[in-house]
Amino acid sequence: MTDTHLHLSYTLGDFVETYSQQSTEDQYAAVVTCFFIDTATNIYEYILTIANALQDDGLWINVGPLQWHGNAQVRLSGDELKKLIESDRILGGLFDTSSWEYDANVMNYRLDDEDAKNGGDGKSGGSTKYEGYRPLRFVVKRKKRPSKKQQHAQISSWELIQQMRNGIENNRIQKQKQQSASYSSTGKTKTFINDEPQQKYEPIIIEEIHN
């Protein structure tokens, strides 16, 4: 008799560091991201990680808003995200889009349905503030990987992610040194601490998304 029970497991750890490794490459027929992708510090990393984990012709199914967290280095609209996922020039054309749509109805954000109906306080309808979003739903298919000969000349997803992270960190350090030097030139001795957001990864690439 065939065992039809589903086996559920979970893994503790960083999503990118866990699933962008060679050991998790080509392992999953589908990846579902539910209210997840806008948690990315760098959405490039999430896309590369999902592409790494998926088998050829595997599906990436997504639902949720693009309410990018405060530490996001790139804040794309839904249309910009679609362009990035499909792009041959930017990430090598990893996916084909099967469906891409936004919900027609706005969903409540931070309020349950009853509170939203009553204006936010659950009683008298005294609140004039309303927050909501339209979830983005899409299904994209992982393109077939290059031949083994072609793959040999390519770097892994994890290596590419590390290059991206190193580039961002080097930009941050260089900017901090420049600002520190500028501050020192005024004759003051106070140590400068860079508290500005990190520079976006590859601003030239971001410009290509808009074009």
Describe this structure in words.
Helix content is 36%, strand content 18%. By secondary structure, it is of the alpha+beta class. The strands form two sheets. A four-stranded mixed β-sheet has the order 1-2-6-3. β1, α2 and β2 (54-64) form a beta-alpha-beta unit. 18% of the residues are buried.
What's this, in brief?
With 211 residues, the protein is of the alpha+beta class. Helix content is 36%, strand content 18%. It has eight helices and six strands, in the order H-E-H-E-H-H-E-E-H-E-E-H-H-H.
Summary tags:
single chain; 211 residues; 36% helix; 6 strands; alpha+beta; globular; two-stranded antiparallel sheet
Give a topology summary.
Elements: H1 15-19, E1 28-34, H2 43-53, E2 54-64, H3 78-86, H4 88-91, E3 95-102, E4 107-108, H5 113-117, E5 132-133, E6 136-142, H6 148-152, H7 157-184, H8 203-210
Parallel strand pairs: 1-2
Antiparallel strand pairs: 2-6, 3-6, 4-5
Approximately how much helix is present in the residues? 25-40%
Lateral strand order in the biggest sheet:
1-2-6-3
Q: For the residues shown, what is the average pLDDT?
A: 77
Extended strand count: 6
Individual helix count: 8
Relative strand content: 15-25%
Shape: globular
Query: Structural class, please?
Result: alpha+beta
Main sheet makeup: 4 strands, mixed
Using only C-alpha atoms, the radius of gyration works out to 22 Å
